[in-house]
């Protein structure tokens, strides 16, 4: 039973990751970030009756602002970004649509973007792509790095993400750790910023 449970968790995580990467490879990283926030139910587009009205072409009407945390060592070619639901802005150029935020346990969402515009969800989302990112780093660099060295270099960039905890939790299938907690569990708040 435990093996079946682990297999299902791995399968669902992989499917979510593949879905998030294949939505539209021509999208810019900011639109992919936005799409991940929508997919994770962090934000919703609603009409005047508060009914969900999102359509894919709405992405062209939306402008998202997020913070650049910095780049991981140049060898990795990965940049880290943060979106805070209270500080950063999402605006839509339509008077008929409002944006509703759904975040109560935390407000910070982190992604990493590699040189191929591939997105890795690292914190705040219902899924975490850290192991996929480590795997891609190992595949796309000419030199093999120790996992612990990669994690240390990430920790030098920011202390807002517990990379060691994420790594250990994912490889041990201990998915109830705080470092893997999703922010989107909660009640809707912050209507129409």
Report what the structure shows.
With 193 residues, the protein is of the alpha+beta class. It has one domain (2-189). The chain is built from five helices and nine strands. The strands form three sheets. The protein has a four-stranded antiparallel sheet. The chain has a three-stranded antiparallel sheet with strand order 1-6-9. Strands 2-5 form a two-stranded antiparallel sheet. Strand 3 and strand 4 (78-84) form a beta hairpin. The radius of gyration is 17 Å and the shape is globular. The N and C termini lie far apart (46 Å).
Distance between the termini: 46 Å
Helix content: 25-40%
- Topology as H/E string? HHEEEEEEEEHHHE
Largest sheet: 4 strands, antiparallel
Oligomer: single chain
Query: What is the spatial order of strands in the main beta sheet?
Result: 3-4-7-8
Short précis:
With 193 residues, this protein is α+β, with helices and mostly antiparallel strands. It is 33% helix and 21% strand.
Give the topology, please.
Blueprint: H1 2-22, H2 29-39, E1 43-46, E2 62-64, E3 67-71, E4 78-84, E5 90-92, E6 98-102, E7 108-114, E8 119-123, H3 130-140, H4 147-157, H5 163-171, E9 188-189
Antiparallel strand pairs: 1-6, 2-5, 3-4, 4-7, 6-9, 7-8
